């Protein structure tokens, strides 16, 4: 299967892609994982090398992703998409073959506006909806919002969860807290990813029937 990680500019999807991939590897089911870096920054790919990941992260910055990229049988592919509002051609291609979309957002007005009402770009929700016409089953991929960089006890998480649900989005109950452990992890090895929110995320995805291999 293929999981597409998308976000507005501040969503933290590269960091989350690395941690989610490792949490899947460390899960009880020991998922086979392969990463794809579809972001021009190529930070996910570089991190896989400096952090000595136990799985490959292949460069995949291409608007022909759906034609050129294949997930090995039995594996879960984790795609770090470029910022959706800036590189819709690449995201469109990934969405044509994605089995699950995770939209990463901080519970802030800035991220909410970039998703729901961007001033001069196509809404992320509209991009996902429009992908249906190009997909084999003619339906958009299942999509869930992951609240990221949350502050423990802050009201903003609940407020923006309700606001996103009011906009018609599915929102995961798992949240990723603002943390130096995650924020300073890029370029370094990831250890014990299953012990914490990313392990909880894997469990929630399993319970919702959103993971297959």
Description of the molecule:
The chain has helices at 13-26, 43-50, 65-68, 88-95, 109-116, 124-130, 156-166, 180-183, 197-207, and strands at residues 2-6, 32-38, 57-59, 75-81, 100-105, 143-150, 170-177. By secondary structure, it is an alpha/beta fold. The chain has one domain (2-197): Rossmann fold, CATH 3.40.50.300. The radius of gyration is 16 Å and the shape is globular.
Q: CATH architecture, please?
A: 3-Layer(aba) Sandwich
| Cα Rg | 16 Å
Helix content: 25-40%
Strand order in space, largest sheet: 3-2-4-1-5-6-7
| Terminus-to-terminus distance | 6 Å
Q: Give the oligomeric state of the chains in this entry, treating copies of one chain as homo and distinct chains as hetero.
A: single chain
- The CATH class label is Alpha Beta
Instruction: Count structural domains.
Output: 1
Provide a short characterization of the protein structure.
The chain is an alpha/beta fold. Helix content is 35%, strand content 21%. It has one domain: P-loop containing nucleotide triphosphate hydrolases (Rossmann fold).
Helices and strands in order, then pairings?
Layout: E1 2-6, H1 13-26, E2 32-38, H2 43-50, E3 57-59, H3 65-68, E4 75-81, H4 88-95, E5 100-105, H5 109-116, H6 124-130, E6 143-150, H7 156-166, E7 170-177, H8 180-183, H9 197-207
Parallel strand pairs: 1-4, 1-5, 2-3, 2-4, 5-6, 6-7
Helix pairs in contact: 1-2, 1-9
Features:
single chain; 213 residues; alpha/beta; Rossmann fold; 7-stranded parallel beta sheet
